[in-house]
Design goal:
It is built from six helices and 32 strands. The chain is mainly β and 480 residues long. The chain folds into three domains: 165 residues, Cupredoxins -  blue copper proteins (Immunoglobulin-like, Sandwich); 131 residues, Immunoglobulin-like, CATH 2.60.40.420; 129 residues, Immunoglobulin-like (Sandwich). A hairpin with a 2-residue loop joins strand 17 and strand 18. The longest helix has 11 residues. The chain is globular, with a radius of gyration of 21 Å.
Length: 480
């Protein structure tokens, strides 16, 4: 087995890979980054949902979906403080949508299940942005088809910028020291075709792949300069939870959560990344040493699993980093402060709302083939039923509890601060603004509803294990 095969096999089987400096220097291909579609000047962009055929590594071609290309989509860059005109054309033979996950926009522009784009149609929403800089993403959100369409590639990354990264001392050279990293897991059959045939077990636990992809590629390494490198980490997997760390023990300095920058870089040796979450971290390569981004095997099963724990073994390789001395070095010193918009909501008089993420078990689970085993507060998602209405600009405290396993919980159209997790101070990585959080037990979330959403174009709240979402663990609310 050569080095390439070892890396691929280890990633697929979840085996531990601890590669010394330079071991993979000549054996792993260079990671490519999604094309950058910069709309900061024009304030307009166009996406085209299309079918394609993609060859992953040395495998045969497989049918895929993408935006403007065969698999995944370009990285969109939008300017906060402006309104951007979007156009999304559907050339597929089935409905799809474009949900701007992490954008604080009105419900009519959100792109959820109430805004499907039919075959041959084009959707033209306006995106008025007044939020802090952040890494968001976009993906199809048609109820009952979200998991499959995202699995086959209908997703991409979205950057909101204010053009002041140089003032903050942050790396900003796209694809050089500012790296967009979409983490996914996929299954392939013996011919190299994507295999997505979820049965009862995969629906209950969420679908897990046997091969790790970064930016839609297998068996690659990120080539980096000998300086500070900014990693925009996006969990685009259907259900896999990553618990990330670096093979040589160096820290990742967290600088941003879902909703934007934190106050100052936070050194972490481990970073949990659940489906739908995004984090930005700085990695220091000034010592000239390569390293490997690793993940623990996180066991998230209601059938006797270890809640919040890791499986056996030393974990698996996600992405090697290797130094390229020819790349320009721009930033070598860690910024001290990021001048962020830190959470400061006051919730003393906030309305308390309790949200229970529920799963059916026993014979009801075993016998169900309708996807109705998932619910919130005992109610399975009904697109015709509005679960509740909140007043615009009101503040609420949501107490969200997870039933039987961990659930990544996402709310459209708002950002929130995590007040507590299981009655304790939140994990350090959750100190900033969030729109998606991993619920392992109970969490308290404090939020203000600034953007309007009508009863015909409401906001969603749901588990971001996509099989659970499609199966009914979702609700909707209006803001008026």
């Amino acid at each position: 087995m050569n080095r390439r095969q070892m890396m691929q096999t280890a990633a697929g089987l979840g085996l531990g890979v601890m590669l010394p400096n330079g071991l993979f220097a000549q054996s792993i291909k260079k990671l490519e980054f999604p094309p950058l579609l910069d709309a900061t000047s024009s304030q307009k962009f166009r996406l085209r949902a299309q079918a394609g055929e993609t060859q992953f590594a040395e495998r045969a071609g497989t049918d895929t979906l993408g935006f403007n290309q065969g698999y995944l989509g370009p990285t969109l860059r939008l300017r906060t403080g402006f309104t951007t005109q979007a156009e999304v054309e559907n050339t597929l033979d089935e409905p799809m949508s474009a949900h701007w996950h992490g954008l604080m926009v009105p419900g009519e522009s959100d792109g959820g299940p109430h805004q499907p784009i039919l075959p041959g149609q084009t959707w033209r929403p306006l995106l008025p942005l007044d939020q802090p800089p952040a890494t968001a993403w976009y993906h199809s959100h048609v109820h009952g088809a979200t998991a499959r369409q995202v699995m086959y590639g209908l997703a991409g990354v979205l950057q909101v910028t204010d053009g002041r990264d140089d003032e903050r001392g942050l790396p900003s050279n796209y694809g050089v020291d500012d790296l967009t990293l979409v983490l996914q897991d996929r299954q392939f059959d013996w011919r190299g075709r994507i295999k997505y045939t979820p049965g009862m077990h995969e629906t209950m636990n969420g679908f897990l792949g046997d091969t790790i992809l970064v930016n839609g590629q297998i068996d690659t390494a990120a080539e980096v300069p000998r300086g500070l490198v900014r990693c925009r980490l996006v969990n685009g997997s259907n259900s896999r939870i990553y618990n990330l760390w670096l093979s040589d023990g160096r820290p990742m300095h967290l600088v941003a959560t879902d909703g934007g920058f934190i106050d100052q870089p936070l050194p972490l040796t481990k970073l949990t990344l659940a489906p739908g979450e995004r984090y930005e971290a700085l990695i220091d390569f000034t010592n000239g040493n390569d390293t490997v981004l690793m993940s623990d095997n996180v066991n998230n099963s209601p059938m006797g699993g270890m809640m919040g724990g890791s499986g056996g073994g030393a974990g698996f390789a996600v992405l090697p980093f290797r130094i390229d001395a020819s790349l320009p070095v721009r930033i070598t010193k860690m910024p001290l402060h990021l001048n962020s918009d830190i959470p400061d909501l006051i919730g003393a008089d906030a309305t308390v709302r309790r949200i229970s993420l529920d799963m059916s078990m026993g014979m009801g689970m075993m016998m169900s083939r309708s996807g109705q085993q998932f619910s919130i507060n005992g109610e399975t998602f009904d697109q015709k039923r509005l679960n509740f209405t909140v007043a615009q600009n009101s503040v609420e405290r949501w107490v969200v509890s997870a039933d039987m396993m961990m659930h990544p919980f996402h709310i459209h159209g708002v950002r929130f601060q995590v007040v507590s997790e299981n009655g304790q101070t939140p994990r350090a990585q959750n100190d900033g603004w969030k729109d998606t959080v991993l619920i392992d037990g109970t969490a308290e979330l404090l939020m203000q509803f600034e953007k309007p959403a009508s009863a015909t174009a409401p906001f969603m709240y749901h588990c971001h294990i996509l099989e659970h979402e499609d199966g009914g663990m979702m609700g909707q609310f209006s803001v008026a």
